[in-house]
Amino acid sequence: MCGRYATTRSEADLSDLFDAADVTEGLGPSWNVAPTDPVPLVRISASHDGKRVLDTARWGLLPPWAADQRGGAKMINARSETVATSPAFAPSFARRRCLVPADGWFEWVRTGKERQAFYMTPADGSALALAGIWSPWGPEKMLTCSVLTTAARGGLARVHDRMPLILPPERWSDWLAGGGEADALLQPMTERELAAITVRPVGPAVGNVRNNGPELVQPVAEATLF
Fold first, then answer.
1. How far is 226 from 154, CA to CA, in rounded Å?
2. How far are the Cα atoms of 75, 117, 133, 211 from residue 38, in angstroms, in the given order?
3. Which parts of the chain span the membrane according to its record (predicted)?
4. Count of CB atoms within 10 A of residue 217's CB?
C-alpha cells in the first residue's frame, strides 16, 4: 500500500507542470502526507469548461453513500486489480479520475524488532503523477480521493509488494478523460520508467505524523536495503 508520501512543490509549479488552473486553498508543502490530510490533485472540472484544475481533496475516498467520515482513513488506496468492479471505487474510476502529484512515497521493512523506513523517489528529482480517483461527499460536496496501487516489481518489491500506479505525462490526458479500456488505463510502469525510481533508506522520524520537514527524506548512510 501507499500510506505516506511527500508532495512539496508549490501550487504555481504544479499548475504549470500539469497545465491546470489553480483552485487550491493555500496548501503548503508536506514531506509526510498521512491519511485524511488535505492533498493537491489534478482533475477535469465541468465548471472550468472541462479543463484541468489543480484542486484540494481529503486523502481517503468517501463514496456518496458513506454515513460519516470515519471510513476514509481505510480508503486511501484502491487496488488496480479491482478498482473497476469495486462498489466503492468503480463509479469514480469510470467518471472521476485524477492525478495526485508526489515527490515520492514511504514504506517500512521490519528487521528484527525494528522497522526501517525507505523513501522511493525519482533519481532525477522529477515529479510523480500518481493515478487517483475522487468523489464528492456530504452536503458541501467535499472532495475526497484515493491513490491506485499495483504490484511492485524489481527492487521496489524488496521493500513492499505494492506500489502506487504511476503515470507518465503521455498517459495523463487519457486517464483524466474518463471512460476508456481498463486494461490500457491500468498498465504498470515500463521497465525503463521503473529503473528511474531510487530506494533511499531514511530515518525513523517519518513514522510520527507530527514530524514534517525536508530532513524526513534525507538518506541515512548507515542503513542498507537489506
1. 14
2. 14, 23, 15, 16
3. none
4. 19
C-alpha 2/C-alpha 10 separation (Å) is 22
The bridge status of strand 30-33 relative to strand 4-7 is antiparallel
Question: Which residue shows C-alpha cell 487519457?
Answer: 174
- Choosing from 2, 11, 98, 145, the catalytic residue is 2
Q: Is 98 among the residues known to form the active site? A: no
The yes-or-no answer on residue 81 being catalytic is: no
Domain 4-105+128-189 has CATH 3.90.1680.10: yes
CA terminus-to-terminus distance, the chain: 20
Nearest-5° Cα angle at 79, 74 to 82: 115
pTM exceeding the 0.90 threshold for the entire prediction: yes
Q: What is the pLDDT of residues 28-84, one digit of tens each?
A: 999 999 999 999 999 999 989 999 999 999 999 999 999 999 888 899 999 999 999
- Report the sign of the C-alpha dihedral through residues 133, 137, 143, 146, in that order: negative
